[in-house]
Design brief:
two-stranded antiparallel sheet, mainly alpha, globular
């Protein structure tokens, strides 16, 4: 029963998050915006064609990542404060789920931005995030929320994606049943953490103004460390994007 509850809550919140327009990140536009003051037009074109990790110094990428995290942390705290103000306890649970969707929308947005900074290809197809893209984002969310298995899955996933990028495979896919079982397991544990957040948010709804300040304060306190945890993991594994062809050759040697 716990397994079903966790996965169902995760899917419900994710479905609501997907309806938030600002949740999606245009890779080319984002990379242009964050690196325009540091790079020439030619370098920007190369960054977008390949990836920042293959072109830029890692210290610059780290600095930009820190700025992106700080900006996202500020925005999610403001939104959490404003949405935490209503004081109708009867509507508490429903509003709590809506708040979670907003919060996880910010998390999904940040996952895309950090992934693009550290070398990942575009998650969108025809301007949309498809279920396969969300399967890639799920381990990133798992890392943010401290799911033990997520870091190992993210490491394996990053390498597989780098290899597919080198082979110029147009759509990044993972076809093994074991992979989807791991994704489902991570979804379950994120869902369990969501249920705890939902309880806290539902209770705070009964406290006008104070509840909003508590909600915003918690978001600020938790979002930064979680985001930095993901950035640290992505940075660690980003070496496979430094030279994707070399990653392919090393993978062949291990077979």
């Amino acid at each position: 029963m716990e397994k079903t509850t966790g996965v169902d809550l995760y899917n419900k919140v994710l479905s609501l998050s997907m309806q938030i327009p600002s949740m999606k990140v245009n890779r080319e536009e984002f990379l242009n915006n964050v690196f325009s003051e540091f790079c020439t037009e030619e370098e920007l074109e190369q960054i977008i064609k390949e990836n920042p990790r293959a072109i830029l110094d890692i210290d610059l990428i780290d600095a930009v990542a820190d700025n992106v995290i700080s900006t996202s942390r500020y925005k999610v705290s403001i939104i959490s404060t404003l949405t935490g103000i209503p004081g109708n306890p009867i509507a508490g649970t429903g509003l709590g789920i809506a708040d979670l969707a907003q919060y996880y929308g910010f998390c999904i947005n940040l996952c895309q931005k950090l992934a693009y900074l550290y070398g990942y290809p575009d998650f969108q197809k025809d301007g949309e995030l498809n279920p396969n893209s969300l399967n890639i984002i799920t381990p990133m969310l798992g890392v943010m929320f401290g799911v033990n298995a997520a870091s190992k899955v993210l490491a394996d996933m990053t390498k597989k994606i780098a290899i597919q990028v080198a082979k110029r495979i147009p759509v990044i896919t993972f076809g093994h049943a074991a992979w989807y079982m791991l994704i489902k397991q991570i979804s379950k544990w994120i869902g369990i953490r969501m249920s705890k957040q939902l309880l806290a948010k539902s209770v705070s709804k009964a406290l006008p103004v104070i509840g909003g300040l508590v909600s915003g304060g918690l978001s600020y306190a938790t979002f930064g460390p979680m985001a930095k945890k993901l950035a640290k993991d992505l940075r660690l594994h980003s070496k496979v994007f430094k030279n994707t062809q070399e990653t392919v050759e090393k993978d062949k040697e291990r077979i």
